[in-house]
Amino acid sequence: MTHAPQHHTPDFVGRHIGPSDDDVSAMLKLIGQASMGGLVEQAIPGLIRATAALDLQAAESEPAVIAELRAKADRNTVLRSMIGLGYYGTHTPPVVRRNILENPAWYTAYTPYQPEISQGRLEALLNFQTVVSDLTGLPTAGASLLDESTAVAEAMTLMRRGSKAAKDAVLLVDAQVMPQSIAVTQTRAVPLGIDIVVADLTGVADEAALTAAADGRAVFGVVVQYPGADGAIHDWSGLAQAAHAAGALVTAAADLLALTLLTSPASWGADIAVGTTQRFGVPMGFGGPHAGYMSVRAGLERTMPGRLVGVSVDVDGAPAYRLALQTREQHIRREKATSNICTAQVLLAVMASMYAVWHGPDGLSRIARETHAKAVALHDSLHAAGIETTTEHYFDTLTAIVPGRADAVVEAAVEHGVNIWRVDADHVSLSVDETTTADDLHAVASAFGVNIPEPQDGEPTWPAELRRTDDFLTHPVFHSHHSETAMLRYLRALSDRDYALDRGMIPLGSCTMKLNATTEMESVTWPEFANLHPFAPADQTVGIRELITDLEQWLCDITGYDSVSLQPNAGSQGELAGLLAIHAYHQANGDSDRNICLIPASAHGTNAASAVMAGLKVIVVKTAPTGEVDMEDLKQKIKEHGESLAAIMVTYPSTHGVFEDTITDLCSLVHEAGGQVYVDGANLNALVGLAQPGTFGGDVSHLNLHKTFCIPHGGGGPGVGPVAVRAHLAPYLPNHPFSEEAGPQTGVGPISAAPFGSASILPISWAYVRLMGGAGLTQATETAILSANYIATRLRKHFPVLYAGENGLVAHECILDLRGLTKESGVTVDDVAKRLIDYGFHAPTMSFPVAGTLMVEPTESEDLGEIDRFCEAMIAIRGEIQQVIDGKVDVADSVLRHAPHTAISLTTEWDHPYTRAEAAYPSGVDPLRKYWAPVRRIDGAYGDRNLVCSCPSPEAYDES
Predict the structure, then answer these.
(1) From the centroid of its chain, how far is CA 225?
(2) Among the CATH numbers 3.40.50.1100, 3.90.1150.10, 3.40.50.1820, 3.40.50.1110, which is that of 771-926?
(3) What is the pTM of this model?
(4) Which of 386, 397, 443, 959 is exposed most, by the fewest CB atoms within 10 A?
């Protein structure tokens, strides 16, 4: 294969890729390779290597890419949106936009699995949970879900687990639940064998009526929208009592802004509340990303999906935040996991939490009252003109009755610069929000031909028993930062407690923490992308959909697949979409008995969870001693289950960081048995430009745009997990009821709430591919492989490298085996991870895929100086371990076991066998770059035993 030399690539390529030409030569020399081409030929099996260069033209420059994006943005038409349906205009506080959304200290951080260096994000997420818990009235809230629709689907399975109703009981859904939520939940229900009944539940207040609404069947769960999709507010207390009497649980999909004025779901009996926090300062963005939410009553907290932030203590007893209970649940419980949610929407949850901190309870209530007043003014103007509405009690949404005139009214509104929603030929709905102006009200009134509305005061117009009277957001954090100076300093204080890519290398295996270039990020906040409603008419969204089409085609070119859907808004959702496509393909071919999914023991934990959610049964394939899939065990499993084999899920290169030369044989064996091959795209950064899963045997892959294609991790999200398929699976990609362009009519249904998922961050990946071009992308992959092999070579004599290919080479990551050292010294991977903090590093991936190991991935963006700094830190730590082995220090009082060392710990009484300088400034640490952990090692077990998941009272802090 030929590769374009570096000087033929754009200047941007040299800025994205860390090592210089001279560095590359030195690195190749160390690992014993004469050239980059020789390294690739040795590392990657010849059977899978691409035979032609990746033919993607690069843009001339970064300004040229911005100009192209500007041209696409200009092809969008941004009208005032009154479509509603869970997506609303909102004012992002400028201090939040600049200091969180546009700040790499927040958007380049990793998931807070290392809590000692994630205290800022974790505090922000605890604020988020407090907002959700206070407003819904339910005591435990999670750190964030993906969107409202998937949150409803997660509530369905939580209710199924929590209800004692018969196995054939149904989910009862009110007809005014958001239509996209009903559709996504139906997509999720089919493979799980759950029946859903959609009915008008207004007035249902006893068991008999509940059973009648469910067509005479038992009910395990009930879902209502509060307020409804039509805008109506109902007292659901009677329904909740009836459901509980029947052994069912109740979920309210609730609008948090409305809950500042409405009684909380908990007050009328809801067991679970779900929804979106989009209108808390997060732009609509043509569908996302936005943070979903879930809160639950006592007794359900330990079955919640996703992430839960809790309060624990460090070794000194100081309060400290951490992920509780569900941390990497999929890796622990695999096919028994309660959900496949792995990526959350942390960055957006942080924004929503800070919107609430900025405004406080009084500010949120004021915004809600002003919004309601606008709806009242429209309601009164419509009624004065004889236009009736279906909604007696409402918050921000009206459904107007316009017999036979819905299309004409919608068209007239567009002519006046406003989008409203056509419900059917006789009804239109319209929603107001905090951004709606007097001019907007005049415009929509003109479309109806009614008098100009005049907003009055915003006191609720609904009955007193539905008006909120209890206090919320009473914690001082929601009352302390209402000046911009105070807020700016609060956000800075939190970011200072975190470690992100703006500080240094995050060498995480399987997560590809690479440069998120500023130019790639620039267009995300442009109003032409940020202010589009996901259900806006197609002729208003030409530019963003053109960008989506470009990216889909480029991803096909890169992967060798035929079709791509960008709808899945996380890698886990891409996995599910791919497996649903496989399931639907077998069903269409009459192979309904194919329900076995083979998964290697080394696979990502989400693989098994996703397979179960797709209705498949997981059978594990053993790992060979060399780290590869055990081919003999695979053959035996295929022999046992061949007629029932639906698919195999395999990560390539393997999760063990090796290019397995058996991959083509594996694909052939599965295909011969009638199964499909799912290639997990988590490690695609080792393949781009060099090999294509769609041509070496894969039928479907999900791709991680937040790994390989430069969308930032955002502290644990957003993510985008497109699904790519060969032609025979294309008819079964996701689609969406509100967009013909989003997928095939024969598709499996929607995977996400919005037709194109988290569309507002797709320009990041579009810009990355356009800036790099095929030659630049290929060079990036080669450099990632080079950097991993350089680290493996430098550290091999100090830490065994667990797996390697035939030529002693690894792929884009390597696994350092500490198990022998742990047995000899007692020093654990946790000790090494925490000591790395003192050296100024985020730890590699711990104990995955093999317990007692560290998985290191340097990426192509780290320069040789930073890579060497990491290697030297690891070598120095190996020396510290040797001191324990030699008996010079007891492990219990070693510098390793007491790491990380905080600044305050150095000022207290010192009785350790090492000096303060050795603790704080170990070999190679530049005092001017020193990162100080804000807390010492955190007690995880304490936090799980004493689950505190909302802001503790100030008294609790004083007591500690």
Answers:
(1) 24
(2) 3.90.1150.10
(3) 0.96
(4) 386
